[in-house]
Structure formats: C-alpha cells, structure tokens
Amino acid sequence: MAETVGLLGGGVIGGGWAARFLLGGWDARLYDPSPDAERVAGEMLANARRALRRLTLAPLPEEGALSVVRTPEEAADGAAFVQESAPEREGVKRDLLAAASRAADASVVFASSTSGLLPTRLAADMEHPERLTVGHPFNPVYLLPLVELCGGERTAPETLERAAAVYRGLGMRPLVVRREVDAFVADRLLEALWREALWLVADDVATVEEVDDAIRFGAGLRWASMGPFLTYRIAGGEAGMRHFMEQFGPALQLPWTKLTDVPELTGALLDTLAAQSDAQAAGRGVRELERLRDDCLVSVIQGLRAHDFGAGAVLAEHERALFAAAPAAGPGGDEAPLRLHSAVVAPEWIDYNGHAHESRFLQVFGDTTDALLRFIGLDLGAGGSYFTVETHMSHLGQARAEERLNTTTQLLGHDEKRLHVFHSLYRTGDGALLATAEQMLLHVDTQAERAAPAAPELLARIERIAAAHAELPRPDRAGRAISIPA
C-alpha cells in the first residue's frame, strides 16, 4: 500500500512536489485554495511523466493517486509526511503549518519549501515543533535533485534524518545546512548573482537575454558538474587553490559588483524586464518553456551520469535503487509465459508515420530482458551478466502515443552459458500482438570479459522456469529466417 504525503500549496513548487511524490509511488493529498490547483498539478504531472520517461529506463514504481482536498487538516490527516509550499509569506506559512500539525499524527515529519524563512519562526505555532525542518527544493522539483534541509532551534536531529531518508527515496540529494541562517546556502549564492544581473539590466549594460547568454554559454556549463570552489581550484593549475587566490584574490577588492545594493524596482525597470523577457520567450507559453527546460536538463543529467558525477551520480544511485526495488515477477511466479514488463508509448517515441519508431520496440524488448534477469536473481555486483548476442524481431502491428503495452517471455532453451528466449509485445487495451523478439543471451564474466558459466543459484532458478515452460507450444515465429520464397 502506497504511503501518503500531505501537500500544502499547489503552485509551481507544490505542483512539482506533487509530481515528484506521485511518480515516486506515493499517494498525494493536495490542499490549495486556488480553483486552478488540480489543473495546474495535472499539467505539471504530465510534463514530469514526459521528463522521467526521457531521463531513465529504470522501472518506476506504480504511480500514486492525487486527490485535491478542501482544508490543510484533510491534507495532513493520515499522511506519513507533510510538505508545505505556500507563498513566501511567514504568516501564511505559519497558519497552514499550525492547522495541519493539529490534524497530523505527532510522529509525522513536516517540511517547508521556504527559500529563506527561518524554521524556528515557522514552527512557532505548531504542535510538536520538533518535527519541522526546511525542505527547500529547486525548480523543477521533479528533476533537480538538490533539497536543502535546515532545522530550527527546536528541530530534533531525527527529524532531519527522517526527512533526508524520504527525499533520498525520491531520488534527491539532501544537503543539511549546518546552522539556521537566512536563505540557507544555495539561495544566498543565487541572490548575489540575481542582484548583480538586475543591476546590469538597470544600468543598461546588458539585456536580459545577454545576461542569460553570459551564464548559459559560460560558467553555467561548468556549474552543471563543478561548483565554484572546484572550478577555481582547477584554474589554479598544479599549484591549486592557494595559487589561484594569490593571483586573483586582490581583484575581490575592486568595485566591480554591487552585492549589497539593490536597484530600485521602478515602473520603468519593471517595464524593461517584462518587455525584454517577453521578447526572449518568443511567443512560447510557460508549459512549452518548461518542456524545453526539462529536455535540456535531462540531456545534461544523462551526460553527467555517464561520468558518475554530480547530478548524474545521484540519478545512477536512484536507478540502482529502482532496479533493486522492482517486483521480481508479475502475478503467478514462474507460470508460463512470464509477464515481467509493461510500458506506455511516450509521445517522443512517435515517428513521421504517426506510430512508435521500430527502435522503441527493441527498447521495450531490451527492458523485458532486463526484467527477466532481475527475475532470475542476477546480481551485477557479483561479476557476471547476460549479454544479448543475437536478436530476430518481427513487427506485426502499430503502437501509438499513450497506448499501454505489455510483454510476455517464454524460455525456449538454456545451458550453463546461454539463454534462448522469446518475447511477445501486446497492446494492453485490445490484446493485439504487435511484435515478437527471439533472443540468444550469453553469460559473460564481466571482469575477464569472456563467456563463462552462470552461477549455480542462477542456473537453479532458470531450471525451475524451464520446467514451468516445458509443456508450452513453441511460438509460431520462433526460429524463422528472413527469405523470399522461390
């Protein structure tokens, strides 16, 4: 049974939290007084589904159910975790947290998405204030892994530990702020950059697009993998950080920036910002811009995953946890045929003909093979794995966007090194057979990089499957070769 999160606030951040929790397998009860709350959350969830399908092939848990409730008490009652994401006004947040805390069990952890308000003040009217921590995410919440945790004067240490465990389970990277401080860590850095960016526009040094270009074509690319300290340590060459600071440190005394001054937000400046920002958007709506942002973030995070670094390392760790938590089999255990994998045709799978590209069928069959290897108990850390060495596919039907698919697997033969399997791909709605794939898998010692017998416990599991499949009729398309009759 899925756990339930209570969500207080459903705007940009609250809607992002809804998507992060729902796609992480949690049910969510959302309170927001806006009549558009359900629509906004639904649109953000659709974007998040799209992004996660692009981000990872790991098996996600079954999506949770979203319900919109009328009061903060309804959101918190029975919840295992409560995330507050109301507007950044202390009074509003305090009232919501106080009301919800009276309805929640005393053991339930509360987290505030505040970007800078102090948790001691936010918890002042709560029952059991020791269970409140800041849980400050970054937009889009469903893709960016960082979440800052900051306790108040009465926050219990176990509150931070329990909140961090929840966030790690959602594929996030908790950063515990060492002491209570305004704006925590990341927003203090961002505020300095944002203030200087506003001055550059206010002083007519640069347009909003030119400021953005200065970041996205320069330092922003570095910051995706390395923060300022590691970046500048490299800039110091072999002599390191000390040399860098000795060389460039004196420049910090020059009056280049206006870090402590804020430009007056006059009507003229606001008009300039709005007009230039509208021009930069070039007619694209917010959902379209969100999808563009998400696609770019997916590419960056996937690139970092290849190096097991930065946000890519967080993704890789979460994928390992998702694979480990994936169900070993569908209903029926070893019964034939095995039903181990299902999928939904993502819009980006569709080609110019209006149906799923043939490569996506191979992707689904590859995911099915991975599910089979999990089912037999393959442990990649043990130094062995099965590699696909031959595939014969037949395309029998079309799959269109958003259609649900499922596969079956029949074991045709095996020995100590090989698995001969036959996968069938069906459209779930009407049961139509869309494709088949016959594959030969070879067990490889991944350390020696050569074929080797599988471990006895794997072979025993395979034998049990083989016994269950022994009486099945051979699939019609098994063993077929491509030919043109004479």
Task: Describe the overall structure.
The strands form 2 sheets. Strands 3-2-1-4-5-6-7-8 form an 8-stranded mixed β-sheet, sandwiched between helices. Strands 9, 10, 11, 12, 13 and 14 form a 6-stranded antiparallel β-sheet that branches. The protein has helices at 12-23, 37-55, 72-76, 90-103, 119-122, 157-169, 186-202, 208-223, 228-235, 240-248, 267-281, 286-306, 311-325, 358-375, 456-469, and strands at 4-8, 27-31, 66-69, 81-84, 109-112, 132-136, 146-151, 173-176, 338-344, 384-395, 404-414, 418-427, 433-445, 450-451. The chain has 486 residues and is an alpha/beta fold. Helix 4 links the parallel strand 4 and strand 5. The termini are far apart. Helix 2 runs parallel beside helix 12 (286-306), helix 9 packs across helix 10 and helix 12 (286-306) crosses helix 13 (311-325).
